[in-house]
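queue> pop job 88
queue> type: inverse folding (structure -> sequence)
queue> payload:
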């Protein structure tokens, strides 16, 4: 074994401690010269740090067997720790960089790199440190790189001085109603101060609520902790909540929160407090700048403040520490807001945040609160129907297989597919990525069925599909409540996330009360049929027609495709006629559907192998069809090339509405495809979100209500007597011109109506 010593200036202000030597380091006799070293060098260059001014070493100076740190003998590791301590004291830098968990363990005595990275921490040597993700981990997961770049910017700042400098923070806990009254009165008297607020919740009740009027002072109002019961008398608690309500509903006081939807939902539902004048949501605002990065308060704290990781305090058994934790949340939220607000201006997205993100909070909270009525009778009938169908299919499958088999058991399915039936393993490429090749997912099953036409595989797919609809939608946990007639009804609710995607599309999940679910992917059929309009109302659905494909045509300046859209009619049939060289009348339904899928695949750079697998055709036929599309519309291919070139020059893309995204992943084919999809998808998402807000503003406090946003559509319910007027108004509201290049694009809006979601008729 070759020992690899540390290298660098003996008076270095920065010292980096890695974990152990690798094969390349062992050969060259220097630390961090392999792939991890190249990644480190790139980050140092980007952040303005010079490698030759940094002392670089490892905890263990040898190459562990199989690159496995756990193979190092305990006595050897103990010796390595002692040598590292001597090395640190000899160099005595201003700051230590601890790269990875093993470096943390050696210096701090514990691990937890995902929590502590980016924090400035004290060490027993009297030298401060910052844990970072090891560059080798970045090589495996490139999304860690931008995070580590931000951490090295902090390293650079901290290297200028040896001591730990932290902003002084006053964290107070209310002890009396007089304390609370005086605190709130001082805010109201000031008239200009902003207030951040944060709640801690257990079993849907608020433990405490914290407020901050600066990044240095916070004030927490406690209510209960553990089994303490209320910390106030009943009358006192009512008075306190009234004081909180008066402050949070005061429209003259700007409010700040992290993930405001959550806090505001709990406050509104449980305490009848409707927060007014929300100035900034730090989570959403950060997403406007860095859509690819984490958005939790712990991460934001590590980037924007000097507060070290403190989230472990949430689980403390010390009541005072718990309430101080809440105060810290309020403090750091305020500081993050100040710095994010400034950074949004520098990045040029402050106005975009206000217009297209912040303004969505109220509408989507309204949608969640309302929900959609469920036909309970149809639901029960459908559940029974699906359970019986699954039993019938399962019996058929067991007969075909020759023994009982659980289609949801990966172990049983693998044994049957690859041992009993000896079918070929799928996707050999996965093996190179370290993934298992004996896949039992839907893609693998569909491919195996395509090449074998084995009836049992078809039955497996049918069973799984019915299981999915049954468990995901029919047996979803719906809310039960009384209607105006006192009758118990069920309602489906979903919580929309403004930060759910990089493109700006809303994502959907369960509510804060763990009811409902993702309602954006409900399949056609019985799963939609149970969604019905409220009594004496009807659904009105507004759908943007071929929205993304139109945006692509305008981005590519493909006039031939633009004319196809502008001339109207059945777009997919026209494309099929062009691609297959047929008249419109001669195009059959299969060719029309194939043309529809070709447009999407070609626009976003899907390769012939993937396309062949998705539509169930040969690779040679797939190539021919894709080439036919590009021959018909050659500027689409040119747009692909221009996008790839632009991505290589500048990683930041801006949409027609002003949304920005910086792509941090490695430059490769996958990233190019992501970049191709970004502007079309984001443009349509922001168009729909803008329309959603305008529709909400028009119909707020009227019998017409927004129920759902589904991909490119908005669904409302309105009194049956007024649906025609509402349909015309909504269509007009959503007809929004978009400036794409030098042309104005208007995406047509299709309107359909009906009494249940599955039976909407186009008008």
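queue> result:
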């Amino acid at each position: 074994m070759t020992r690899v010593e540390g290298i660098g200036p003996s008076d270095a202000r920065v010292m980096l401690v890695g974990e152990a030597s690798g094969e390349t380091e062992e050969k060259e006799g220097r630390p961090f010269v392999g792939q991890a070293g190249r990644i480190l060098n790139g980050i140092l260059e980007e952040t303005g740090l010079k490698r030759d001014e940094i002392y670089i070493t490892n905890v263990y100076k040898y190459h562990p067997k199989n690159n496995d740190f756990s193979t190092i003998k305990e006595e050897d590791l103990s010796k390595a720790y002692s040598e590292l301590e001597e090395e640190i004291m000899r160099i005595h830098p201003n700051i230590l960089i601890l790269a990875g968990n093993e470096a943390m363990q050696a210096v701090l005595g514990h691990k937890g790199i995902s929590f502590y990275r980016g924090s400035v921490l004290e060490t027993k040597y009297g030298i401060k440190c910052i844990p970072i993700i090891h560059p080798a981990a970045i090589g495996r997961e490139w999304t860690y790189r931008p995070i580590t770049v931000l951490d090295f910017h902090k390293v650079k700042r901290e290297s200028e001085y040896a001591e730990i400098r932290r902003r002084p923070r006053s964290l107070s806990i209310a002890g009396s109603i007089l304390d609370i009254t005086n605190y709130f009165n001082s805010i109201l008297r000031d008239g200009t101060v902003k207030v951040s607020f944060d709640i801690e919740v257990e079993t849907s009740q608020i433990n405490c609520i914290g407020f901050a009027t600066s990044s240095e002072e916070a004030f927490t109002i406690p209510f209960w902790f553990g089994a303490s019961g209320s910390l106030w008398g009943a009358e006192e608690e009512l008075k306190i909540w009234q004081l909180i309500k008066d402050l949070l509903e005061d429209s003259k006081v700007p409010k700040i929160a992290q993930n405001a939807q959550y806090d505001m939902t709990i406050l509104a539902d449980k305490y009848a407090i409707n927060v007014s004048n929300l100035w900034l949501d730090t989570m959403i605002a950060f997403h406007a700048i860095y859509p690819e990065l984490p958005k939790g308060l712990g991460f934001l704290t590590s980037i924007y403040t000097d507060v070290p990781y403190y989230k472990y305090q949430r689980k403390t058994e010390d009541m005072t520490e718990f309430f101080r934790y809440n105060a810290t949340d309020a403090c750091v939220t305020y500081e993050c807001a100040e710095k994010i607000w400034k950074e949004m201006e520098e990045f040029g997205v402050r106005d975009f945040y206000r217009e297209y993100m912040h303004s969505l909070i109220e509408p989507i909270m309204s949608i969640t609160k309302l929900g959609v009525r469920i036909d309970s009778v149809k639901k029960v009938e459908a559940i029974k129907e699906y359970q019986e169908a699954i039993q019938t299919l399962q019996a058929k499958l067991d007969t075909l297989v020759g023994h009982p088999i659980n289609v949801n058991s990966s172990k049983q399915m693998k044994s049957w597919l690859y041992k009993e039936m000896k079918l070929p393993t799928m996707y050999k490429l996965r093996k190179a990525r370290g993934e298992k090749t004996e896949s039992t997912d839907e893609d693998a099953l569909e491919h195996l069925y395509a090449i074998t036409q084995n009836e049992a595989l078809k039955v497996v797919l049918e069973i799984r599909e019915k299981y999915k609809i049954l468990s995901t939608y029919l047996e979803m946990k719906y809310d039960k409540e009384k209607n105006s007639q006192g009758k118990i009804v069920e309602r489906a609710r979903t919580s929309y996330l403004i930060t759910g995607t990089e493109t700006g599309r809303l994502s959907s999940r369960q509510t804060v009360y763990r009811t409902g679910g993702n309602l954006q992917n409900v399949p056609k059929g019985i799963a939609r049929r149970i969604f019905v309009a409220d009594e004496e109302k009807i659904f009105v659905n507004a759908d943007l027609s071929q929205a993304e494909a139109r945006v692509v045509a305008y981005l590519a300046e493909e006039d031939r495709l633009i004319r196809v859209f502008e001339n109207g009619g059945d777009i997919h049939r026209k494309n099929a006629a062009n691609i297959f060289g047929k008249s419109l009348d001669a195009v059959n339904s299969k060719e029309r559907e194939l043309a529809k899928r070709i447009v999407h695949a070609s626009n976003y750079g899907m390769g012939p192998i993937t396309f062949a697998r998705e539509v169930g055709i040969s690779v040679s036929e797939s190539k021919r069809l894709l080439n036919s599309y590009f021959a018909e519309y050659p500027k689409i291919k040119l747009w692909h090339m221009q996008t790839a070139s632009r991505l290589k020059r500048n990683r930041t893309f801006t949409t027609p509405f002003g949304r920005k995204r910086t792509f941090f992943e490695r430059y490769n084919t996958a990233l190019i495809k992501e970049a191709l999809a970004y502007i079309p998808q984001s443009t349509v998402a922001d168009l729909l979100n803008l329309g959603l807000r305008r529709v909400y503003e028009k119909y707020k406090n009227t019998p017409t209500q927004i129920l759902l946003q589904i991909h490119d559509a908005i669904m409302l319910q309105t009194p049956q007597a007024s649906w025609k007027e509402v349909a015309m108004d909504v269509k007009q509201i959503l007809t929004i011109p978009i400036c794409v290049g030098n042309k104005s694009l208007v995406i047509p809006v299709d309107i359909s109506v009906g009494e249940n979601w599955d039976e909407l008729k186009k008008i």
